[in-house]
TrEMBL record:
Keywords: Iron, Metal-binding, Monooxygenase, Oxidoreductase. It comes from Streptacidiphilus jeojiensis. This is Hercynine oxygenase. Fe cation binds at residues 73, 161, 165. The keyword Iron applies.
Length: 469
């Protein structure tokens, strides 16, 4: 064999080994997708098997769909994207498309639609899933292939869609009257060092990379990566607690017009806001209803079920402000040692139970100061999990945004009507939560698992920061 043959042989060996490696990577990815879809389905069934037919068909709040609508809508989106679009297969139930199109019927109107009853809806989900898994088996997931399938994007999108509805369904459970049907262990108590955490951490001025162009399952609104330069700012080490929020209430915060924007004031009066949703006064103490049980409001837990106007008013009362979305993301992702933006506050590894309170493992936030292993380099904790954090920012596209794969996922919501929430709650699965993930809602909404933390400019005078306690 001459020199030439040998190098040809080496090149061909290398190609064969690359193919084996990429074949292995692709079968690992296929297995991960199947497991991710299965996790979502187990949660969907867990949230719906626990209620009877009437409980699933009822509208528990005009803000929410009946749970049977979410159920079949999950199946319909999976049919549209995985069976028809990715699989190129014929429609299974085209007659269902208009019923489960979120844009054709507002939530309040959905109970009046001729919806599938629970059992047929479950059968439809099984039928769609069997075909979706069959499509997955034959799909070319090459990261350099067509964008819908590249790296399994559309499968990831549908798993995230189902998990987002699982969070919405959990919010419906929280609004539902009647005896408790869900149960989960309480999160662990705060770690010993939580009480000694500084109230706020400094994020020095400078640029960072916001958004992503490389995360394979990132949705269109998280793209593309771009540089944002920020002045220095201080950010609360942990989300604002119930204890701190009670001080705002006790100080007359709800009725003091100094703390509210004109729109906030109007909404506060119209809606009669006096405390977070699900709270009630009992003599000198506050109680809350949580998934059908009434309990004292835990002092050290992040406040949840507040609207943007309440968060904004609290921040002004505290002599502070809500962080912008860019400030939130810089604190959550920038590694100052390398200048690189990471996937999560702790690094690039997927979240474990030690990093964050995610995935409906617990049906409440963990005490402020929890999850030291999930800390950001700045020392800020619980940026991921526990409560969605309201930011000061409107939901706007990043420079260079392109709608993908459909305008109705993000683009139609851009503009000043919606505020951005970051970081995910105890109710969202890790697949639909990361340092770049953007959620949005109207500033009046508070049935979602929403809390907040506050910030101030680095050059602003220091006011009495509220102690974590
Ligand atoms: C991203 C949570 C605002 O629930 O309206 C579900 C997610 N999009 N089905 C929503 C979504 C389509 C969306 N949020
Ligand atoms: Fe949906």
């Amino acid at each position: 064999m001459n020199q030439h043959d040998t190098s040809d042989q080496r090149a061909s060996d290398q190609r064969a080994s690359d193919q084996r490696a990429s074949g292995q990577a692709e079968s690992d990815l296929r297995a991960r997708i199947a497991a991710t879809l299965e996790t979502a389905r187990r949660r969907t069934l867990g949230l719906t098997d626990c209620l009877d037919e009437d409980g699933l068909k009822a509208q528990h709040s005009p803000l929410m769909s009946p749970l049977v609508w979410d159920l079949a809508h999950i199946g319909n989106q999976e049919e549209l994207w995985l069976v028809r679009d990715a699989g190129g297969r014929p429609a299974i139930r085209p007659d269902l498309d208009p019923l489960y199109d979120a844009f054709q019927h507002p939530r309040a109107d959905r109970p009046a639609l001729p919806l599938l009853a629970p059992e047929p809806a479950r059968a439809y989900l099984r039928q769609v899933r069997a075909q979706a898994l069959d499509v997955l088996d034959g799909a070319d997931l090459d990261p350099d292939g067509p964008p819908l399938l590249a790296g399994g994007f559309v499968f990831g999108m549908i798993a995230q869609h189902e998990q987002q509805h699982d969070e919405t369904m959990l919010a419906t459970h929280q609004l539902r009257q009647g005896p408790a049907v869900l149960d989960a262990p309480a999160p662990p108590p705060a770690p010993a060092d939580a009480a000694a955490l500084p109230a706020e951490v400094l994020i020095p001025a400078g640029p960072f990379t916001m958004g992503t162009s490389t995360e394979p399952w990132a949705l269109d609104n998280e793209r593309p990566a771009h540089t944002v330069d920020l002045p220095g700012y201080w950010l609360d080490s942990a989300p604002v607690t119930n204890a701190a929020y009670q001080e705002f209430i006790a100080d007359g915060g709800y009725t003091d017009p100094r703390w509210w924007t004109p729109a906030g004031l109007r909404h506060r009066e119209q809606a009669g806001l006096t405390a977070p949703l699900f709270w009630q006064r009992d003599g000198d103490t506050w109680l809350r209803r949580r998934f059908g049980r009434t309990e004292p409001v835990p002092a050290d837990e992040p406040v949840v079920h507040v609207c943007w106007y309440e968060a904004d008013a609290y921040a002004r009362w505290a002599g502070r402000r809500l962080p912008t979305e860019a400030e939130w993301e810089k604190a959550a992702r920038l590694d100052p040692a390398t200048g690189r933006s990471r996937r999560y506050p702790w690094g690039d590894q997927d979240p474990t139970a030690d990093h964050a309170n995610l995935g409906q493992r617990h049906l409440q936030p963990a005490p402020a100061g929890s999850y030291p292993r999930g800390s950001a380099p700045s020392g800020a904790r619980q940026l991921i999990g526990d409560v969605w954090e309201w930011t000061a920012s409107d939901f706007e596209p990043y420079p260079g945004f392109t709608a993908f794969p459909y305008k109705e996922y993000s683009e139609v919501f851009f503009g000043p009507d919606y505020k951005v929430l970051r970081g995910g709650s105890f109710a969202v699965d890790p697949v639909a939560c990361r340092g770049t993930f953007r959620n949005w809602d109207y500033p009046i909404r508070r049935q979602i698992f929403s809390g907040f933390r506050t910030a101030r400019d680095a050059d602003a005078p220091h006011t009495d920061a509220v102690e974590l306690g």
